[in-house]
Design goal:
Shape: globular
Distance between the termini: 55 Å
Order of helices and strands: HEHHEEHHEHEHEEEHEEEHEEEHEE
Number of helices: 10
Length: 265
């Protein structure tokens, strides 16, 4: 196994378990303790972990953005549930915008079943996923490449987005909180999501349950009446009351994995 592959696997483990031990990793990968320490030292220098005695813990600094390749492997089953629910909210012929989140990539995989769509995205991975599918017109924003998130950002990308009006925008985030709304880890991706939000008749917020009660570095947006929040399990009673008061429609899976839509007041 290459060092970069081992480091990525260690990051995936940290995303799930929050901590790792040098002794366990050296046995798992059949390398010396010193090799694992160097891996962890490198990950610490990149801002992803904090080394501890005998191991490391995940760095929960709110402005550190985990690479997309790692985020794709995290909470996959939850994101697949969300993707199927969002698929059912998208109608044939819709014009939609998809952000560059790992959740949107999962949604794009589901949308390939649609016969006719127009998809505008700043995600390199979504562009590749939907390329060549008959009936799906894919429009790239262009812009500057964020190598961590594989997103296209900056003024050029925003200018392209502002030239369109779409039926629906599908957005995710790094954290969602009643007081702070949706938050993200960097301003460039947050700016793109805000532009997408303003270009759509309806906004679908696709947020897995691990993001609730988390606050990241950049405040992105507050939810407004008419928005749709799609998540993988029923949130707390406090959240349900908050969403109803805000006029935000909540979509969660029911016991048969189909949609359960809670009415707004």
């Amino acid at each position: 196994m290459l060092a970069i592959e081992r480091k990525n696997e260690i990051l995936s483990i940290l995303q799930k378990e929050q901590r790792v031990l040098v002794s366990e990793l050296s046995k798992k990968y059949d390398v010396t303790d010193e090799t694992i320490r160097r891996d962890l030292e490198k990950l610490e220098s990149e801002g992803y972990v904090k080394r501890t005695y005998g191991g490391a813990v995940l760095n929960k600094n709110t402005n550190v953005d985990m690479p997309l390749r790692i985020r794709e492997k995290t909470n996959r089953s939850e994101k697949q549930i969300i993707a199927k629910l969002v698929h059912d909210l998208i109608e044939e012929g819709d014009r939609i915008m998809l952000d560059a989140s790992s959740t949107s990539l999962m949604i794009a995989k589901e949308l390939k079943e649609k016969g006719k769509l127009t998809v505008i995205t700043n995600s390199v991975e979504v562009l590749i996923e939907l390329a060549g599918h008959e009936g799906i017109q894919v429009i790239s924003t262009g812009g500057n490449l964020n190598e961590t998130s594989l997103s296209l950002v900056g003024n050029a990308a925003q200018k392209v987005l502002n030239g369109y009006h779409v039926d629906k925008a599908v957005l995710s985030c790094k954290g969602i909180d009643i007081k702070n709304g949706l938050t993200d880890s960097n301003e460039l991706d947050s700016d793109i999501k805000n532009v997408m939000y303003s270009c759509a008749d309806t906004v679908i917020l696709a947020v897995d349950s691990s993001k609730f009660e988390r606050v990241s570095f950049v405040k992105t947006m507050q939810m407004k009446r008419g928005d749709i929040l799609v998540t993988d399990q029923m949130p707390s009673g406090e959240w349900q009351s908050f969403l109803q008061e805000r006029g935000v429609q909540l979509v969660v899976p029911d016991s048969e994995c189909s949609r359960r839509i809670l009415p707004v007041v």
